[in-house]
User: Fold Response regulator from Pedobacter fastidiosus.
Amino acid sequence: MLESEFVLHGMRVIAKNMKTILLLIRFVKGLLSVPAYALLDQMKKTICVLEDSQEILDIISIVLEEENYDVRGFGTVSEFLSKFASFEPVICLLDVMLPDGSGLEVCNIIKKSVQTQHIPVVIMTANSGMDKMKDTCEADDFISKPFDIDDLSRRINLLAHKN
Assistant:
């Protein structure tokens, strides 16, 4: 069984059981107070996530749903491109390496379209060549994997409430 690793409130967590990780995230997030701006937003804002790892998608969904976002997950580039615009997302969170393409290519498609260029794009990658990636697409932010859950929430909230 593969180990999963992430950072939760400054603590590096490694576990073989994804269910345990998800329960831990829900427990810790439940202990935290809801940010004041989340209380002001009556309608949930949608975030579209393109991630082929179901475990990572589950973690991201739990974290962002706790922040009062509606999370729409996609496992392939083709599925994402055919559906994401209909959800009118406030942010697109894209993995780089995908089975049928690249999140960098998807970022460029989003940013070149008049209808979607206003949507902030965040690129997630385990690749160490992040500086090179910044030259190939116009993403609004880049997050390296494994990511810190608090940092992910903070960055997403900043971008979502900036618009």
Notes: Residues 4-162 form a domain with the Rossmann fold fold (CATH 3.40.50.2300). The CA atoms of residues 6 and 146 lie 5 Å apart. The two ends are 41 Å apart (CA to CA).
